[in-house]
Structure of Major facilitator superfamily protein:
Amino acid sequence: MSLGHACVDVYQGAVAALVPYFVAERAYTYAAASGVVLAASLLSSVVQPLFGVLTDRRELPWLLPLAALAGGAGVALSGLGGSYALTLAAVALSGVGIAAYHPEAARVARLAAGGSHTAMGWFSLGGNVGFALAPLLVWAVVAGGGLGASPLLAVPALAGAVLCAAAVRAVGPRSGRAAAGRTDGGRDDWPSFLRLSGAVVCRSIVFLGLSTFVALYVRERTGGGAAAGTAALFVLYAGGAVGTVAGARLAERYGRLAVVRRSYALTVLAVAGVVLVPGPAVYGFVALASAGLYVPFALHITLGQDYLPGRVGTASGVTLGLTVSVGGLAAPVLGALADATSLRTALVPLVVLPAVGVVLLRGLAEP
């Protein structure tokens, strides 16, 4: 499941990684380029909770390989042709595939993990590795062959479909509450879950805002070329490889909520450094921001599932999917602000949002 998650989440990272190439090859404005990220996020944000509700009611293991293929097909088609509308449609297809994948994948992973926070951390790590590899994969394919080579980006989807099918077969058929990943202990705590979700939305906007523009911003600040921007995006995503598992380990020692709150506080300082500190030092602050954004990632999922023990699919769809993709809805606003002022000015609001997350998390109790 972790390896399959990596193959699928390549496509969450690939859309942002393609933005500099759309700007360079098709002369998109910042607003138009961020609209591509919005297209990938919008349908995903709308349909993800619906898939979560479905997985609460019945098992849908066959959905995993199909969702992996849809996620890859959309990105593979996005570079073909010059039509902006077709590009938006292609990345929207990818977004729907990713939305269909995550709630059911979280359910199956929870079964395989036996409820372990650390094991769910490894599952989340797989997705973060996929994110981290996305800019390198896009650079390897598109930098040399142009956007017309994008069909080669479908290869991870084929591998992901095979891996997901194998994982589902290994877990085997389940039924009843166990099949849905539900537990019998505790009642659903909606107020706490909604506050947690609000904090994750803040995290999502920061993460996708940086994902969309950090490559362009670093190229602008350092005077480097495409490689400089790709390196910055890789640093942002690669922090997930360490941060997610580290977060699970830290939570076992200090408690989940304490780790999540401190991570959000760290993110405030780190993003301020990305925006304000000049020169190559920006890479260090991108790495620090990556740590602050990724350490609480798996903890969001298990906290959400434990706040809603009777609706694990819904909780997974929101914490793993909706509140991750919803950040893309803010990308066009940031893009329009960048067109009207500067890219640096557009990134300033991203400093404030993690502080809002800290406020929302204050006073929450361990479920």
In short: The two ends are 26 Å apart (CA to CA). Confidence is low (pLDDT under 50) at residues 175-183. Residues 123 and 281 are 32 Å apart (CA to CA).
